[in-house]
Amino acid sequence: MSLETHASDGEQVRGRRFVRPYALTGGRARSDRTNLTLDTLILSTASGSAVVPELPPERRDVIRLCATAISVAELSALLGVPLGVARVLASDMHGEGYLDAHEPMPEGTDLTSVLERVLDGLRVL
Amino acid sequence: MAYEFSRPLPATDPPSAGGALPSRLPVGPKVKLLPVKIVVAGGFGVGKTTFVGSISEITPLTTEAAVTAVSAGLDDVQLVRGKDTTTVAIDFGRVTLDQSLVLYLFGAPGQNRFLFMWDEIVTGAIGAVVLVDTRRLADSFHAVDYFERARIPFVVAVNCFDGVLAHEPDAVRRALAVPDEVPLVHLDAREREGTKAALIEVTKHALARARAG
Q1: Which residues of B touch A12 (CB under 8 A)?
Q2: pLDDT per residue rounded down to tens, chain B (213 residues)
Q3: Residue A112 belongs to a domain
Q4: Does the residue A9 lie in any domain?
Q5: Domains annotated on chain B, with CATH
Q6: Cα(B93)–Cα(A93) distance, rounded to whole angstroms?
Q7: How much is the ipTM here?
Q8: What element of type H or E holds A89?
Q9: Could you say which of A4, A83, A102 has the minimum Cβ distance to residue B34?
């Protein structure tokens, strides 16, 4: 994948890359793997951090942004790419073992106990 | 359209502007984190983002979701020939509730033509807040209808601009045709305490419903 770089006054702007968003996903609007929801929390894994130097720039950014847990929606906003692009990137990288994913209400979750925790958490805010 | 893909990111430190969770959220493969979400709905300009921002630990962020012409064609979008997608902006915020529980507040796009987007935003939500401006009650009808049909527990929150309560609560309830079991609260969307109280109300409402089965 090649990135378009824009020059400013003949000089490359360091740290800024301009790229058509769906070029980052090979034109795909869906991942070939599980599609994560917009509120799924994602977090870099040790293997993700270990391969950072070998990753393309946008994937490096994902690993760095996910050093603390953020949602797919936050990834989209912080990267400045549409939700669909962030979703495909995150889903692919989750499938490759570079990101842990914590999904909302996984199978077997007791809704009542979750709501009780939410209520306790809100009351002490 | 080209996006500025990457602002310079620090090589080692996690991002500080909006990216990092508070340090009390543990980092490690063994901790199971749980995201939950509450949807904030209401007419265009009713104060959804203000409501989210009053309690969010991050400045509300915006994500852009693509909408296809097939979906858009179901509503009142006037499609321009050759333009088969449009985007809709979703504002959201985050509140860390305990060591592993994170609440997201998602603003549902206000215009009627984006109703079809709601399924993705609403799926899995523990509840919803319908923000109401009493000067424009009709703007909230579709939100009330939607959550009733989707069986999502919701509260009606009357945003009292400048502290002025323009209508009696019962009048608002009648005008919106919401049943008595739906809580109705008054707040100033700019103030954290009112926002917090509304979120507590919707969670209590959802809990009562969950316990009732």
Answers
A1: none
A2: 344 444 444 444 444 444 445 444 555 556 789 999 999 999 888 999 999 999 999 999 999 887 654 444 444 344 334 445 667 889 999 999 999 999 999 998 877 667 777 888 898 999 999 999 988 888 888 899 999 999 999 999 999 876 666 667 788 899 899 999 999 999 999 999 999 999 999 999 999 999 998
A3: yes
A4: no
A5: 34-212 (3.40.50.300)
A6: 24
A7: 0.81
A8: helix A83-95
A9: A102
